[in-house]
Design goal:
Layout: H1 2-13, H2 29-34, H3 37-44, E1 52-55, E2 61-64, E3 71-73, H4 76-84, E4 91-94, H5 118-123, E5 128-131, H6 138-146, E6 151-153, H7 159-173, H8 176-197, E7 203-208, E8 210-211, E9 214-215, H9 222-229, E10 232-234, H10 248-254, E11 258-263, H11 274-277, H12 286-289, E12 293-297, H13 298-302, H14 308-324
Parallel strand pairs: 3-4, 3-5, 5-6, 7-10, 7-11, 11-12
Antiparallel strand pairs: 1-2, 8-9
Helix pairs in contact: 7-8, 8-14
Amino acid sequence: MRAQAMRRRSFAGGLVAALLAVPLVAPVAAAAASVASASSTATASAAAPNAITVIDDAGRTVTLPAPARRVISVAPHATELLYAAGGGAAMVGAVSYSDYPEAARALPRVGDNRSLDLERIVALKPDLIVVWRHGNADRQTAQLAALGIPLYFSEPKRLDDVAVSLDKLGRLLGTRAQADRAAADYRQRIAALRARYAARPPVTVFLQIWDRPLTTLNGAQIVSDVLTLCGGRNVFAALQPVAPTVSDEAVLAADPEAIVATAQGATASDASLPSLDRWRRWPSLAAVARGNLFAVDGDWLTRPTPRLALGAQQVCRDLETARERRR
C-alpha cells in the first residue's frame, strides 16, 4: 500500500509525468472568444502607470496592469509558492494534488498534469495563470496563451531559485512584504545548511524517486542540488533525460554509499518501505551493508517550494549519519 502511495505521489508531482504528458482536449472556441479582449488588455498594460513587470522562469516578460486578484495554478508546486508569497486570498483554482497548505485542498479543480478544463478556467475569470513548463504539454500551454490571459512560467531549477520565485510572485500579487519574509526565511535556512554540510566528506547517493520503473534524477534537477548542499554526490548526475530510468544492475555497479527514496508522508529516515527493502537482496551493496537506506517525504524534496528546506535538512542529517557509520 505504501509503495503504491509513493508511486501515485511521484506521478502527481510531475517528475515522471512530464515524460508522459498528453495533449489537452480540443480548445473551446466559444470560451476563447469570451476572453479575447484579455489579450489587448495584457498588451496595453505595459503602458499602465502602475504596471508590474517581471521575467518568468522561461525568460518571458510578464506584465500586469495591477496586482493579480484572481489566480489559477496549474502545478502543485506553483500553488505552494503562491500561498507562501501571500497569494492565498487571490487563488481561485488549481490542479489536482495541489494539497498544501491545507486551504489549497478546497480550491476548485481545473484539471491535472494530463489535461486542463478550459471552460472552467475561463469561467473562473483569472487575471493570471501560473504554469509549469514541463508539467504541461506544449499544446496545453499554447491553448492557455490563446485565451489572452497572462501566463507566468514557474520552474525553479536550483535551490536559490525558490526565493527568487517568491520575490517575483510577491510583486505580481502585490504582497511583497509577505513574499520577502518567506524568501528571507528560506534563504537563511538554506545558507545555514550549506555552511554546515556542503564541505563535509562526500557521500555517493542513489536518489530513487520511483520504483516501477526504477527512476532517478540527474544533476540538472533541483533535488540533485540538495545532495550537493549536503555534501552528497549523485551517482547518476550525468544521465539524460532529467528523470532517467535505471536498472538494478546500474545501481549495483555504481555501488552508492546511501540510497535516498522519496515516499509520501515519510517522516523518519529509517522508515520501512518496500521500495527500499528491495535492495536488501544485495547485502554487499554499500548502502545496504552500512544500513544507509533513507526515506524522505516526496513533497519536501521534489517540489521546489520553501518546504524544500525541510527535505534538505533531513537529507543532510541522513548523509551525516552515513558518514558516522564509516567509523
